[in-house]
TrEMBL record:
Gene Ontology molecular function, alphabetical: ATP binding; ATP hydrolysis activity
Alphabetized PANTHER family for the sequence: ATP/GTP PHOSPHATASE (PTHR43581), EXCINUCLEASE ATPASE SUBUNIT (PTHR43581:SF2)
Name assigned to this protein: DUF3696 domain-containing protein
Domain DUF3696 per the UniProt entry, residue ranges: 370-415
Record domain ATPase AAA-type core: where: 24-354
SUPFAM superfamilies: P-loop containing nucleoside triphosphate hydrolases (SSF52540)
Pfam families noted in UniProt: AAA_21, DUF3696
């Protein structure tokens, strides 16, 4: 789980300051304010650690098959107007779910563009268990390795360049001696946190009328959610102690949202193809023929149960094409799974209904302000600015940005005023 995040000179952000992240973090804000940049920073690191080239410092993307996002070039990532040195940085802290010898730690990395146009690490800092390891770039691609507060490097040389943003190379590990194993453990813990990010973007693939199942379970859901249907098929067709689990859980939430009573997987004739059908109101309909809201929320629900326990699910606009009640129930879904499966949700949304239900859940004591972070991003003088919404135990926000969700009370007052005025006019006649 990511416990904090800080960006400097990254896209719309001059300096975010250290942003506290919770089991459920909701990002709200105006269009093009910088919300997505917060999410993209973690995706940038995820696709870097998954790069097949271990010598790469930062994978800015471009491969449509393997990359989550195409960031373009260095100049498109660094904040416009950044003066010398032209460097951006990403910092985060994390807490592991218990699969690692590292319980918590910190990653921080600054990047610059070399004379040849390559994005290279300027300084990498890996910290955990009160120990800190630093790799600092010198001249001509040479790096110096430091531990803790030492002022003299343990080693220097071109062979000490970091790998995939998060790891020290073998030569550096050897140079660190007995501390080398700890440096490796920290890198591995950071890599696992990033690899265990499950990301679902706002543009999701439309459902097919039927699917071929290849008798395997996909390794990931994909950013457009199109592997969600394969995950549902494997949940039903693979016979084990978890058979039907994901399908049943997804059906529960669809029913809670009042968009479907349940889902069912049906074989098409005797072929190797299967269709997903929706039961609702006494009718059975192919998923392709129901409203888009059902099809587009399916990957969101599947992600919550498919992601490994203790991992992070990042969602952009999960409420797309859902009616108000269903949008509100999404808040319940996030809170429930963050507790039952220890899934961290980082959600970018424009949904007032989702936000209002989150307030209600706090007031009901279904969750608490210690478990929820509500962050509002806005643009101020050309810079992104972040406001942490201050929420009390009854879900009330004391520093809400004016008119972001419109002025509901003002609209009601105006309707009442117009009704009163019209009645008076009719009475005069």
């Amino acid at each position: 789980m990511f416990t904090s995040l800080r960006l400097t000179h990254f896209k719309a952000w001059q300096d975010t300051g250290m942003i506290t992240l919770k089991p459920v973090t909701v990002l709200l804000g105006t269009n093009s304010s910088g919300k997505s940049s917060l999410i993209q920073s973690l995706l940038l690191l995820k696709q870097t650690v998954q790069s097949p080239d271990r010598s790469i410092h930062l994978n800015l993307g471009g491969d449509e098959i393997s990359d989550l996002f195409d960031f373009g070039h260095f100049d498109e990532v660094i904040k416009h107007g950044t003066s010398s040195p032209r460097e951006f940085s990403i910092t985060f802290t994390f807490r592991t779910a218990g699969q690692s010898r590292i319980n918590s730690g910190e990653f921080s990395c600054g990047y610059r563009q070399t004379a040849t146009g390559v994005t290279a690490i300027q300084e990498l800092v890996l910290s955990a268990a009160e120990h800190r390891f630093r790799a600092i770039r010198r001249e001509k691609g040479s790096y110096a390795i430091f531990t803790d507060d030492e002022t003299r490097p343990r080693a220097k040389g071109e062979q000490l360049a970091p790998e995939r943003s998060v790891a020290l190379p073998a030569a550096a590990i050897v140079a660190l001696g007995s501390a080398g194993a700890l440096a490796e453990d920290i890198s591995l813990a950071i890599r696992r946190e990033l690899e265990n990010i499950c990301y679902l973007g706002p543009l999701r693939r439309k459902p097919e009328r039927d699917y071929v199942w290849n008798k395997t379970t996909p390794g990931q859901i994909e950013s457009d959610g199109h592997r969600a249907m394969d995950i549902l098929l494997s949940s039903v067709l693979i016979k084990n102690d978890k058979q039907n689990e994901i399908l049943d859980e997804v059906s529960f939430w669809l029913n809670r949202m009042k968009v479907a009573e349940r889902l069912e997987i049906r074989q098409v004739g005797r072929s190797a193809r299967y269709e997903i059908v929706v039961h609702q109101g006494g009718t059975i309909t192919n998923l392709r023929d129901v409203g888009m809201g059902v099809a587009l929320v399916l990957p969101v629900l599947v992600a919550g149960y498919f992601a490994p326990a203790g991992s992070t699910v990042i969602l952009e606009e999960p409420e797309v094409h859902l009616h108000p009640l269903a949008q509100a129930v999404l808040a319940e879904f996030f809170v429930a799974l963050s507790r039952s499966r220890r899934i961290q949700f980082i959600v970018e949304t424009h949904s007032e209904h989702l936000f209002r239900r989150m307030q209600t859940l706090i007031a009901r004591k279904n969750t608490s302000v210690e478990q929820i972070a509500l962050l509002f991003v806005e643009s101020a003088a050309g810079n992104a600015a972040l406001r942490r919404l201050e929420v009390d135990e009854f879900g009330r926000v004391s520093n809400w940005p004016q008119y972001f969700f419109g002025d509901a009370l003002g609209e009601t007052r105006e309707q009442a005023r117009l009704m009163h005025t019209r009645h008076q006019e009719q009475h005069r006649k």
